[in-house]
Write a structure and sequence with these properties.
CATH class of the largest domain: Alpha Beta
Shape: globular
CATH architecture of the largest domain: 2-Layer Sandwich
CATH topology of the largest domain: Dihydrodipicolinate Reductase, domain 2
Radius of gyration: 22 Å
Strand content: 15-25%
Number of helices: 12
Helix content: 25-40%
Structural class: alpha/beta
Strand order of the largest sheet: 14-13-12-11-7-10-9-8-15-16
Order of helices and strands: HEHEHEHEHEHEHEHHHEEEEEEEHHEE
CATH superfamily of the largest domain: Dihydrodipicolinate Reductase, domain 2
Oligomer: single chain
Length: 409
């Protein structure tokens, strides 16, 4: 990717590791955290940099460096944040001793390698969802985080809403009885015939302002394609579309609420129903049904052609827990009205990237528990990919517990 050799990177990373591991004992510079941004596209800009700018004084953070293989994005990010350093090669940013933690907001097929390299360099990590492209990568990331002891927050920012950890208390204490089914959706609608689109004014010129080879990484190689570059969520080489972009948010909520880990089998259906001629490969409508060894199912519903929501709920034998904008309500089933009383929970926190970053910063400084650690990220990837493989192969997909891999059933 650049003139930085692997040997140089490893040497510089070793020095950076010492800095990060001893960070909690450093009180100089007013305990300031210096952030490096890897990937400076729309989500990084609107979803992360702008919210972080609003809280940087409150949180005592500083933007140390930005990195993107598309120069106009790096230039824009540096101007927006005031970062004094710009890189094309993310490994150079990781070797920068001034960086304490990194935001990884790149296409999904790069998440694993960048996270592993960041951990090896001793940098704490905020990685956008999904944590990795597949379960094999997820296992490697978890092993690396456990060994290096850096803090890693996975960007399912809904976990900074306390509704789901609170719901888990009612599940565990039996208030709603045996949970048999959870249902949840993430649907959208648009007048556009291409449903996963991105608008940007900058002109991409491979070899001039864009390193197309670096962007592709280990994915299948293609000649430069504007659509693949701009709208990568439409293509299996880089993303799983609805499953990894949207369902990952929803299934993680259910996993947290019900105390789940890996599904034991799953099935999925869908297709390009509304826009059969749209560019790309992923479906515009998709349903997944996952069965967990705890004896319950999780139903995930999505369409890009109709945004009418499905109620988000846990169906228990004694009561139903229904999530809403304020938190959740527990309503007893008829036969158990004398045993279960209606309960209303008003949430604290919110689905907020700023809150999610604050939690990571608190974990780095004070060892606070992470709202979405690498293990929870792993469980989400397993659920998402199981549905994708079932859709692609048109058959049940199971989970081999001993080998931690997806298998055909």
């Amino acid at each position: 990717m650049s003139s930085l050799s692997r040997r140089d990177f490893v040497a510089l990373s070793s020095a950076a590791t010492l800095t990060a591991k001893s960070y909690s004992q450093v009180t100089g510079a007013n305990n300031r955290l210096k952030v490096g941004i890897i990937g400076c596209g729309g989500m990084a800009t609107e979803g992360h940099m702008k919210p972080l700018i609003k809280v940087r004084e409150e949180q005592n953070i500083e933007f140390a460096a930005v990195c993107d293989i598309f120069d106009p994005r790096a230039d824009r990010a540096a101007q927006l944040t005031g970062a004094q350093k710009k890189y094309r090669d993310y490994r150079q940013l990781l070797a920068d001793k001034d960086v304490d933690y990194v935001l990884i907001a790149t296409p999904e097929h790069w998440h694993a390698q960048m996270s592993i390299d960041a951990a090896e360099a001793g940098k704490h990590i905020y990685c956008e969802k999904p944590m990795t492209y597949n379960v094999q990568e997820a296992r490697k990331v978890v092993d690396t985080i456990n060994r290096t002891k850096v803090k890693m927050q996975v960007g399912v920012q809904g976990m900074s809403d306390d509704s789901y950890e609170t719901a888990n208390k009612y599940v565990k204490d039996g208030t709603i009885g045996k949970v048999v089914l959870a249902q949840i959706d993430y649907s959208r609608n648009s007048k556009e015939s291409d449903f996963m689109y991105t608008r940007e004014d900058f002109k991409a010129e491979p070899g001039v302002n864009l390193d197309w080879n670096a962007w592709q990484g280990n994915a299948k190689k293609h000649a430069f394609d504007e659509n693949r570059f701009r709208h990568w969520r439409r293509y299996w080489d880089y993303s799983s579309g609805i499953a990894s972009d949207l369902f990952i948010h929803r299934v993680t909520r259910i996993i947290k609420s019900c105390g789940l880990t890996f599904p034991q089998r799953g099935v999925s259906l869908g297709g390009k129903y509304a826009w059969p001629d749209a560019l790309g490969e992923v479906p515009d409508t998709m349903n997944m049904l996952l069965e967990y060894p705890e004896g319950m199912m999780v139903q995930l519903v999505s369409s890009m052609a109709n945004s009418t929501p499905v109620e988000h709920m846990l169906r228990g034998h004694k009561a139903t827990l229904i999530f809403n904008r304020e938190g959740f309500v527990i309503r007893p089933e008829g036969p158990f009205r004398d045993e279960v009383k209606e309960i209303t929970h008003k949430k604290s926190g919110a689905e907020s990237t700023a809150l999610h970053h604050k939690n990571l910063q608190d974990a780095i400084r004070n060892n606070a528990p992470l709202k979405c650690d690498c293990n929870l990220g792993y469980y989400g990837v397993a659920a998402s990919q199981m549905g994708v493989e079932a859709y692609k192969k048109q058959r049940y997909i199971g989970w081999d517990k001993s080998k931690e891999k997806l298998v055909k059933l």
